[in-house]
């Protein structure tokens, strides 16, 4: 199957997908870990992107693929060494996204001291919903966030519980990477991550944003 960006992605398409790990204390706890002293950043390939209404494919290498619902921020104005005080002005849009993770593949990588790129980077492992303009979101740090599987609530939280707020994430990432227009920042997930199975119907919501719905297939 040939890769194509979701048709509703604003132009230009993302050059990189920046993701934040362990940004909610209770999720870090369920992963038997602590919130780090500074944001923990990893990357997904942009070929992992998937659109609303499409199908997450379970890779044959994994028997334990998990859902992680997240607020996604789209960079509208790039930059380097962006001050935290004005960092959110560099965000043009918000969406709900999923950081799909092959947890067993990730665990094996952790045990060997290897990076998580394979566990996080399979095709279809970065679904993202339709975007809302940043000007329509009054406070990105006060949004309810929820995920259901087959109508059952699995994750429920609020962006107010982020360990590192959005402005700090944008500023931090810009000190490491040059941020470019179109880049997507996945800001971390609350607790409640759990396995997905073939046939599951997933709905992810962030308050005030268009919902994201995907199906799961092997």
Task: Walk me through what this model shows.
With 218 residues, the chain is α+β, with helices and mostly antiparallel strands. The chain has a single domain (17-217), classed as Fumarylacetoacetase-like, C-terminal domain (Fumarylacetoacetate hydrolase, domain 2). Helix content is 15%, strand content 30%. The strands form four sheets. It has a six-stranded mixed sheet. A five-stranded mixed sheet has the order 4-15-14-11-12, with no helix packed on it. A hairpin with a 5-residue loop joins β14 (201-206) and β15 (212-217). The radius of gyration is 16 Å and the shape is globular.
Please describe the structure with a list of short key phrases separated by commas or semicolons.
15 strands; about 30% strand; alpha+beta; single chain; Fumarylacetoacetate hydrolase, domain 2; five-stranded mixed sheet
Rounded radius of gyration (Å): 16 Å
Helix content: 10-25%
CATH architecture: Alpha-Beta Complex
Assigned CATH class:
Alpha Beta
Low-confidence stretches: none
Give the termini separation.
Answer: 14 Å
* Mean pLDDT across all amino acids: 96
Shape descriptor: globular
Q: Let me know the largest β-sheet.
A: 6 strands, mixed
Order of helices and strands: EHEEEEEEEHHEEEEHEEE
Classified in CATH, the superfamily is: Fumarylacetoacetase-like, C-terminal domain
How many strand units? Answer: 15
Give a quick summary of the entry.
This protein has 218 residues and is α+β, with helices and mostly antiparallel strands. It is 15% helix and 30% strand.
């Amino acid at each position: 199957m040939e890769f194509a960006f979701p048709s509703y992605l604003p132009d230009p398409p993302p050059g990189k997908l920046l993701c934040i790990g362990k940004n909610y204390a209770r999720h870090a706890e369920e992963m038997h870990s602590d919130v780090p002293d500074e944001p923990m950043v990893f990357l997904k390939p942009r070929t992992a992107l998937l659109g609303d209404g499409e199908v997450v494919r379970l890779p044959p290498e994994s028997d334990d693929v998990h859902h992680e619902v997240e607020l996604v921020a789209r960079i509208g104005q790039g930059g380097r060494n962006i001050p935290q005080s004005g960092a959110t002005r560099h965000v043009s849009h918000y969406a709900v996204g999923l950081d799909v993770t092959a947890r067993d593949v990730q665990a094996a990588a952790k045990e060997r001291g290897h990076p998580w790129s394979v566990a996080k980077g399979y095709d279809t492992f970065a679904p993202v919903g339709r975007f809302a303009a940043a000007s329509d979101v009054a406070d990105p740090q006060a949004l309810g966030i929820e995920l259901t599987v087959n109508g059952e609530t699995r994750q429920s939280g609020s962006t107010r519980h982020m360990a590192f707020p959005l402005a700090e994430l944008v500023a931090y990432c810009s000190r490491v990477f040059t941020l470019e227009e179109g880049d997507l920042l996945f800001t971390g997930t609350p607790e409640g991550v759990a396995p997905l199975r073939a046939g599951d119907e997933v709905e992810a919501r962030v308050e005030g944003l268009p919902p994201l719905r995907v199906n799961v297939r092997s």
